[in-house]
Amino acid sequence: MGQDVVLPTSEEEPSTEAAAAIAEFLAAEEAADDDQSEDISPFIEGTNIQWAWDSTSLNYAKTCARLYQYVMIEGWQSENESVHLRFGQELHTAFQQYHIERAAGVEHDDALQDVIHELLHRTWGWKVDTTTRAGKYKNRHSLVHAVISYLDEHAEDPASTAIKEDGAAAVELSFRFEIEMAPRAAPERPYMLCGHLDRVVEFGGDLYVNDYKTTMTTPGSYYFDKYNPDNQMSLYTLAGNMIFKAPVKGVIIDAVQVMVDDVRVVRGMTQRTSGQMDEWVDGLGYWLNLSEYWAESNYYPMNDTACNNYGGCRFRSICAKDASVREQFLKAEFKKGERWNPLKVR
Amino acid sequence: MEPTGNAIDVIMDTPPKDLTPDDLAELVAYHRSQRGNLEAGVKPKKDKGPAPDIAPILQNIIAAKPKAPTGQIKRRI
Prior knowledge:
The complex is a heterodimer.
Chain A: E1 5-6, H1 17-20, E2 22-25, H2 28-33, E3 52-53, H3 55-63, H4 65-73, E4 76-77, H5 79-103, H6 108-122, H7 133-137, H8 140-153, E5 160-163, E6 171-179, E7 192-203, E8 206-215, H9 221-225, H10 231-244, E9 248-258, E10 263-271, H11 274-297, H12 316-319, H13 326-333, E11 335-336
Parallel strand pairs in A: 1-5, 3-7, 8-9
Antiparallel strand pairs in A: 2-6, 4-11, 5-7, 6-7, 7-8, 9-10
Chain B: H1 7-12, H2 21-33, H3 55-64
């Protein structure tokens, strides 16, 4: 691991013009400590108008209004989703713990053993159906293998964890900030952008957000090309600028390809200019307006050009049915769980 | 990755509070040993025992193979 970096303490405005459009930065990390935040709904009371947005919900909205309806409004989930979600969350938690220990001076092997021990504790009793495709790839064994493989791969990471002004390692940072725009139905409540950054690193003298991805496909150049343009990476770059009040160049993406027998770890990078960030923020207003219109009209049209993206939408088979029987198939193939809440601290 | 059916499975199935540093070291060492084949770009071949002697089989195939037609091939458009 390289030298730790003390983040700039400049009081200057965020470097991008897009960031300047942000009205207020609302205590990024305090949000993580605010237990009550889990109870706050991202929707305006009594409506389906969403006022707090993260990259996940924005992705749904930008991809397909019907997908957004099924997941964000109605909370439909599949079993496989919970496997993917759990696997990803455990991976993130393990990496977070590792980087905190390393930033505190713990040696690689010791930190790794601590991380694995904690991981075994957290996942004790986690059973997945290994006869399913998701379970075959993502289970407790493959999780341990993925964590060891990734951390060994980056034991001497040229991208060093940034150190915040308070001396803490810049990992798993929750962020929230309001923008100068509000739903028409509730002008007193500005829209909020929120989410979590896995890590902020110094690399080659610049600051980057570091994001972990698990994938079951090969992370070649085609894989990384898809992150520009990309909603999540643009939001993360913007958030990095807001949190650190310093130029964040983009996102370093660590892709962990999970295979049946092994793991491949590949690193890629995506950068954003201030002009690109301005454009992203401009577009954001359009999508937020549109989502409010969907909620007001209770009409979420399907985008039938997006059904086959990324191996196929999970709801493709539902949308393929006649509207009169769709609800029955939804109930048979999915279950209604807790709705995704961008404000929930993870 | 499937359970291995060996000492590693025993470690994985042991309540974490009962694991020793040696157990954890063994687990890490095992997973490290499982890497490498991929990094070399070669999937490990399964041991199927000694290769069969295919020479007689090959001879039979060659003997049975019809001879190439000698007639003129018409040009297709």
